[in-house]
Amino acid sequence: MKKVTLYLLLFTFIFTSCSSVKVFTDYDSKTDFKTYKTFAFYKKGIDKAAASDLDKRRILRAIEAELLAKGFKKSEKPDILVSVFVKSRKRVNIRTNFGYGAAYDYWYPGYYYRGNTVDVTQHTEGTLFVDFIDATKKELIWQGIGTGALRAKTGAKKEEKIKVFVKKILLKYPPENKK
Q: Is the Cβ–Cβ distance between 28 and 141 less than 8 Å?
């Protein structure tokens, strides 16, 4: 019985500590993504992002690192302009436990009755939009969107969370159906 409880606790800890980022991408199917080799950040778009300057810098550093790892070069005359947009919202999770189990609230002959309990938790869910704009045409050619829970309490944890968001979003670039 102790092993089962230990495994259950371990599984619960692992499951709840690994927050996932859901990613969606969209792109212009007529675009030849092989022609893009250089990038720069689109200051006008980034300035409008509703995030602190610290978080904006974290996001831009993460994007830059991922693009450089993909072979892009930062340039004064870029092929692609990169812009970001962020938004967040509060999420409330309500879980009702109707339980017959090992709780000791009430005892009836033959079983323990746990009673009905309601667990309410709250967290912030963040969404990061990463836009790639053709620098010549000034048209959006690719957009990646990542959504997930924001539970970071320190700057270092925020930075790690942002890196995960950006990495998962940019894994989808360039798109599979590229020309």
A: yes
DSSP string, 70-100: TT-EE-SS-SEEEEEEEEEEEEEEEEEEEEE
Residue-wise pLDDT for 140-166, tens only, equals 999 999 998 877 777 788 889 899 999
Burial, 164: exposed, middle or buried (Cβ in 10 Å; 0-12, 13-18, 19+)?
middle
Say how many C-beta atoms besides its own lie within 10 A of residue 105's C-beta. 10
**pTM, rounded to two decimals:** 0.71
The tens digit of pLDDT for each residue in 3-57 reads 433 333 333 333 334 458 999 999 999 999 999 999 999 998 888 887 788 889 9
Instruction: Tell me whether strands 21-27 and 111-134 are parallel, antiparallel or unpaired.
Output: unpaired
Burial class (CB in 10 A: 0-12, 13-18, 19+), 93: exposed
Which amino acid, residue 143? Q
Q: Which two tokens stand for residue 51?
A: 């995030």
**Domain 20-170 top-level CATH class:** alpha beta
CA distance 154 to 54: 12
Whole-angstrom Cα distance, residue 16 to residue 55?
Answer: 24
